[in-house]
Amino acid sequence: MSAAPSSPMPAAGPLAGLRVLEIGHFVAAPFCTRLLADLGADVVKVEPLGGDPVRQWGEQRDGHSPWWSMHARNKRCIALDLKNPRAVALVLDLVKDMDALVENFRPGQLDRFGLSEAALHAARPDLAIARISGFGQDGPYRDRASFGVIGEAMGGLRHLTNHPPEETDLPPSRVGISIGDSIAGLYGAFGLLATLWQRDRAGGTKQAYTLDVALTEAMLSMMEGTLPEYGVFGTIRQPQGSRIQTAAPTNAYPTRDGQWLLVAANSDPLFRRLARVLGRPELADDPRFAGNPARLANVGELDALIAAWTRAHDAAEADAILQAADIPSTLCFTAADIAADPQYRARGMVREVEDPLLGPVLQAGIVPHVPEDPGAVRWAGPSIGAHTDEVLAQAGLSPETIAELRAEGTIR
């Protein structure tokens, strides 16, 4: 039988009192609801009886994933077999007490379960619904399979995450995280709060909107001037490696100890300071480098001059010199660097969370930081069905009914 712990800490944060039902899997919808839960929302996550697939992602300890520890923190997890009509009826009962529902199934899947928008709004007319999918709820690609990487590619990001084509014939690099899913989740959270504000400012007399967030569109909206530049000039932005296309110098430079140092001295005052650090103050007035257009036109030569200086120093030493000159710079942080960083530690962005399944786990803190009413990491990602009994009891089910549902395999 599943454990039925009470939530160990009361909700805190600006979203305390907001009630959200998540019927999501993998990354996009769960990331959206984690952001809401971090700021105090009461998120009830519906999982299949075998659990969310992310429970099995990444390195494991005794079958438990540290990724899951943060991915599902602050959520109350219940396990239902949505192919069973009794489980669907339970969801509709839960919806009656929810402000919002977040899902990221393929378009039409919830309808096939019996959880269409009409059914959900019949249970709660002012329910806000956030739907996250690969291509959106309509259009010719609606039914195509998709993951975040597909959104990243079609949104234009994957084309740009590489070195210039003349420098490599390797395939475009992945960002390294599920950025497409996470960006879509961010838009889902933002849109959900917007529609709830619209609903509540009408005094509860207005039906909340349904949000339609596509992974492809979420990525495209992040692509800065890529599309306008093509529309006006016909130019196709190309990969720049670690440079940026619009300002120089900004790049990663090699150091004596084999590390990479990021330097962004891409305004005229910053470049003048950098020239002094390099021991070449005359570079600031050199026609090749005087002004951003000239620096961009001669960026290869400029980067070679800066790299000659960084190669003469260890990374930490060079970084300290640049910081003393008030020039934006940093080493490329690894997880170990992040965990030890005093700025992250001081602001609670690296914190130790006690996970009953894993012991102490380092987790990222809460964004945005709200000093007047900060959220909290109330608990780590729970086991499958950890809150099934608690949530269903709050919905009015008796212990006998809950035991019957578990015995027949409807819940876990």
UniProtKB/TrEMBL annotation:
Record keyword Transmembrane present: no
Keyword Ribonucleoprotein: no
EC number: 2.8.3.16
Main EC class the enzyme belongs to: transferase
Keywords assigned: Transferase
Top-level division of the source organism's lineage: Bacteria
GO molecular function annotation: formyl-CoA transferase activity
InterPro entries registered for this protein in UniProt: CoA-transferase_III_domain, CoA-Trfase_fam_III, CoA-Trfase_III_dom3_sf, CoA-Trfase_III_dom_1_sf
Name of a matching Pfam family: CoA_transf_3
PANTHER family per record: SUCCINATE--HYDROXYMETHYLGLUTARATE COA-TRANSFERASE
Name of the molecule in the record: Formyl-CoA transferase
Native source organism of the sequence: Aureimonas pseudogalii
Lineage: Bacteria, Pseudomonadati, Pseudomonadota, Alphaproteobacteria, Hyphomicrobiales
